[in-house]
Amino acid sequence: MRCVVCNSENRNSAASCSACGSPLATAAASSPALPVGTRLQGALYFVGKVLGQGGFGITYLGSDTGLRRAVAIKEFFPQAQGCSRNGTAVQPGGMITQVEYVAEKAKFLTEGQRLAQFQHPHIVKVFSLFEENNTAYMVMELLKGKTLLRIIEDHGPLEEAEALAYITQIAEALDVIHSAKLLHRDIKPENIVITEAKRAVLLDFGTAREFAAGKTRRMTTILTTGYAPLEQYGQRARFGVPSDIYSLAATLYHLLTGEIPIQATDRAAGVELPAPSRLNPKVSSKVSGAVLSAMEVRVDRRPQSVGDFLRALRGIRPSSPIPRNDGSAAPTGVKARRQTFNRTGNVVINVDRAGHLRIDREVTIHVAKAAAPSIDRPQPCKSVRLGRQEQRWPIELAPGSYRIWATCTITARDTPAFATRLWEPNECDLIVLPGNEPVNLTVGRLADGLHLTMEKAARFSE
């Protein structure tokens, strides 16, 4: 039973919401759903019981009298925004104005139009789209089955072969979607239904948007943490096929491990994403590596097409090289790795805590390979947490340019810290020098964040 106050799912037998404590019986008694037997489109469709209910819509079991088949009927009903029903008509109110209501209804219709253009076994089919009762309706195929999220919750991680079978089906659907210059932008286990015939079907195109390959454009920030790539947290970024590939790989990660992946913003701050094979030893190294590759924080290091991701899952090299934006060729093979790491330089990072305002708490220093400016923060290759009094961090690095930054949990006056702030107004390149050359950092409080400056850097010439 879903709570109408906070939209949390509860057991059918629950009397109150486990999340917010609101009484569920009252909510059920005042359900805004259409009465069973309601006719739509001049009795072409009949409304049955409620199949699901969320903050912006109600899905009913329905019947198509013309074709004599059962269907799912999705009604636009932003209940979470305070809308109500007058008879069968929906009345906007509460937190949504008439103008906003019309705009959101138009988005609902656009979602239906996007779905209707696809006739694919792994994309939910839309049969009809119409307006009535001061709202809009989408008539879709009735899917009998469970979402992947419910399957994981009920049975735990899936076997690798089963998980790959479902992901492959969704990947085939994504390939068709991408060919139409669309991005789904919300791939996750909750949006994939597995039918009784073991057919995986992708749902919910409410966040889908057109894209132009390689172009930077503004997009609304709508995402699900854990499955969304870093670029999706911004409004102006290069969105493309690799964005959906990240989400697809994150979904596979959840299927294989039973755990939601660490969100991209935390990973960008240096939190390590454990390999699927580490969390579940039954996962092959081939598949584990392919998942991590597709979940790279940097866009240009992921597979650039669905086909390349599927080939990586089978242990086959991509058909097209992954582009790099740092002006250098990607080293490949054991020989190249030896050339890169056969010599190292020692660097001591000195942290001066007596900056603008003294930082008397732990500070984490991150070091990453430097790259050309990108929407993504470079993925750290080394990180260390320095205690309240520690000031020195000796590290050994291979030749090359590196970038450093710091993170620190800060407080507002005497209140507990509510977030980890990232602040890098003077992000600099650290160039390794053989020998114990110091690199001095000043770490201190500014008005609203952490300040990091580089005072000295040296070059490692071979």
- Determine the oligomeric state from the structure: single chain
Note poorly predicted spans: 25-29, 211-221, 322-342, 372-377, 412-436, 446-450, 453-462
Mean pLDDT: 75
Structural category: alpha+beta
Give me the side-by-side strand order of the main sheet: 1-2-3-4-8-7
Cα radius of gyration in angstroms: 26 Å
Query: How many H/I helical runs?
Result: 10
The number of E-state strands comes to: 24
Distance between the termini: 66 Å
CATH topology of the largest domain: Transferase(Phosphotransferase), domain 1
Largest sheet: 6 strands, antiparallel
Write the layout of secondary structure elements.
Layout: H1 24-29, E1 39-40, E2 45-53, E3 57-64, E4 69-76, E5 84-86, E6 89-91, H2 98-116, E7 126-132, E8 135-141, E9 145-147, H3 148-155, H4 160-179, E10 182-183, E11 192-195, E12 200-202, E13 209-210, E14 216-218, E15 236-238, H5 241-257, H6 264-268, H7 276-279, H8 285-294, H9 306-313, H10 333-341, E16 345-352, E17 363-369, E18 380-386, E19 392-397, E20 401-409, E21 420-422, E22 428-431, E23 437-445, E24 450-454
Helix pairs in contact: 4-5, 4-9, 5-8
